[in-house]
Amino acid sequence: MQQKPASLWQLFSVFFRIGAFTFGGGLAMLPLIEREVVDVQGWVDKDEILDIVALSQSVPGAIAVNSAVFIGLRLRGLVGAIAALLGTITPSILIILIIAHFFAQFQANPFLLRAFSGVKAAVIGLVAAAALRAGRNAIVNRYGLVAALCALILSVSGVLSIVWIIILGGVSGIIYFGRSQRGEAK
Amino acid sequence: MIFWQLFFTFFKIGLFTIGGGYAMLALIQQEIVRHGWMTPQEFVDVVGIAEVTPGPIAINSATFVGFRTGGIPGALLASIAVVLPSLICVSIVTRMWERYKSARVVQNMFAGIRPAVAGLVAAAAVLIALATFRYVEGALGQIWTALIAGGAFYAVGFRRWDPIKVIVGAAVVGLIVFR
Question: Please, is A1 exposed, middle or buried when counting C-beta atoms within 10 Å of its C-beta (0-12, 13-18, 19+)?
């Protein structure tokens, strides 16, 4: 695909924004990454972002950090990965260092807790929006619908861990699409 | 000595947690309590803070624990140690991915994985909703939580608003409506 060029500073600042506004960890960063990296910058296309998310969840480390490294590597190699990585973690480090100084005051601040209750509620909607978008892009046939529903049920019920669900998706893709391609060849 | 221990411990935490986020917390707690860097109760407070501050929880906890045990150098060292495995592992996986991604079997694999990821994101939304509603007190609080969640879903999912603006807006609404 045609990739737009990215400077190291852009990589740092885009991931700084993502790091600064990702609350709740894990997939909560997906809507922000899609907005910044796919819609605004055009660095990665909308199918590839799902591949990056799948890979990020399958290797060790935090998902936001792994995605930053994937995208940084992709666009500018190792220095790009380091720029994106530093962008992602710098807001956390700054904020935690400030809080560690004022631990007691911070803990009981009612205004902060109320504002955070609002953010927490919004995060539900944001992740649901990311799911809607992922579904629109990824579910293109009956196989996709069944696979998505299976993944949803297995994950919510806690039967299988995320890594196993991704492996299962990959294996079923190899079997399903492999068979239909052999069918076409005949 | 403490710096080496911090580095080694957080490198290990980064290396052995797959799937991100909350999966890391159990391992972090185990390691921190084992080294006597914090009591279990203090760790619960750290998790509480990590939840209300932006950024990956693993980084937040690493920075906090590093700061407590080794000041600012400790904070930086622990934070870098926890992300170093990501840099190494993702570099290896990317190299393999670039080499094999045009192979038909790899394309089929990702065609199978993409809808599963959509399901996993939907599952994350359900799990976050369950956890959040369990924590909200009172019927009025629950109604406001549902309204804010629904509004954010509509704004980002259908109107393509900027998620950062939605988060800031939700913080302001939360400040006004929650008690």
Answer: exposed
Considering only the beta carbons, identify the residue of A92, A97, A149 that sits closest to B72: A97
Domain hosting residue B139, numbered range = 112-177
Residue B107 lies in a domain: no
Examine the fold and report which residue of B44, B67, B100 is the final residue of a domain before the chain moves on.
B100
Q: How many CB atoms lie within 10 A of CB A119?
A: 25
Which chain B residues touch A23 with a CB distance below 8 Å?
A: 51-54, 167
Contact flag A121-B59 (C-beta cutoff 8 Å)? no
Whether A66 contacts A25, CB under 8 Å:
no
The Cα–Cα gap between B6 and B68 comes to 11
Q: What is the pLDDT of residues B107-137, one digit of tens each?
A: 999 999 999 999 998 998 998 899 889 888 8
Give the residue from chain B lying closest to A64, CA to CA. B56
The yes-or-no verdict on residue A1 having pLDDT over 50 is: no
Same domain, B52 and B81: yes
Look at A114 and B155 and tell me if their CB atoms are within 8 Å: no
